[in-house]
Amino acid sequence: MRSSFDRLNDGSTNAPRLRMQQSLWGLSKLPMNAAKEWTLDEKFTRVREAGFEAVECWLTDDDEQEVTSALDRHELRLVLGHRPFNLEDVRQTVARAVRLGAEFVFAQPASAFTSEDEAVRIVSEGRKIANDHGLPFFVETHRNNFTENLPQTNRLINRVPDIRITGDLSHFVVVGEFYGWGDEHAETHLDTVLQRVSHLHGRISNGEAVQIDVGDGTGDSAMFFVRLWSIAMRYWLQDAQPGDIFPFTPELGPPRYAITLPDGKEFSDRWEQSLVMTNLARQAWAIAVGTDPQHPL
Questions:
Q1: pLDDT, tens digit, for every residue of 107-131?
Q2: Chain centroid to CA 15: how far?
């Protein structure tokens, strides 16, 4: 039987659905190569008009009032991310999430050099802390965290089999140097992770760079990720219940995530690429639910 905190649920009787949300970090230094960055209100106006419903933020005491006031003005929901190195870090973020009305919390756990026992403690007890306050708690797959590679992440899953994951698969693809070729068996290697995804970050790697421009999204790298995302969504849908929400975030970071020209300017419009990512996510969802005629189940 699934936990009531395995996924985001809005308490409604609506059919399970895909939800688009944005990343505040991914909105930084926009518009592309401009002399003046968009204000929070300008950013959130575009976010709302593009159909996003929430924004992922990493907040501090210094910026929480400014950010949450802007979210309220634009009727956008809040999701909180953090990087806990101990349980006190989790408690502080959960307390902030409760105070600000965040919908769920995701965590980049500790570092790649944290002991396995400590990582297990942060993940398992951290989830309990969040769940005791009515919040889902998802663990992000990410470089320079304990979850930076598949073998280490699988050891964590073996110790905490009920873990729920924020899947930023770009990190596994670049660390594993996957190109999407059939004989790599990437889907098989990633399966234990894909089974547990409750939230996806939409960044695409080509196996060498962690974040690439995929143009209109029809190329091989993009289609490889659509395939991976659709598998994760299909697993999630297997026991989905009314009111369940699958959040997808096109998390495209500024330099040094974004590749730049020698003069330091970006050549890829991250805002436009974020809209391509949402289209790819919808394509993956259509495959997962069986409504894509080109990719029948």
A1: 999 999 999 999 999 999 999 999 9
A2: 22
Question: Are the CB atoms for 148 and 176 separated by under 8 Å?
Answer: no
Give the residue extent of every domain in the chain: 8-289
Can you name the residues that pair with 7 across neighbouring β-strands?
none
In this predicted structure, what is the pLDDT of residue 291? 86
Summarised one tens digit per residue, pLDDT across range 66-120 is 999 999 999 999 999 999 999 999 999 999 999 999 999 999 999 999 999 999 9
More confident residue, 1 or 249: 249
pLDDT at 296 (0 to 100): 58
CATH code of 8-289, in short, is: 3.20.20.150
- In angstroms, rounded to a whole number, what is the distance separating the alpha carbons of residues 203 and 2? 28
Q: How far is the first Cα of the chain from the last one, in angstroms, to the nearest whole number? A: 25
Q: What are 30-37's contacts with CB under 8 Å, separation 24+?
A: 30/270, 30/271, 31/269, 31/271, 32/266, 32/268, 32/269, 32/270, 32/271, 33/265, 33/266
Q: What is the pTM of this model?
A: 0.96
CA 276 from chain centre, in angstroms, equals 16
DSSP state of 295: S
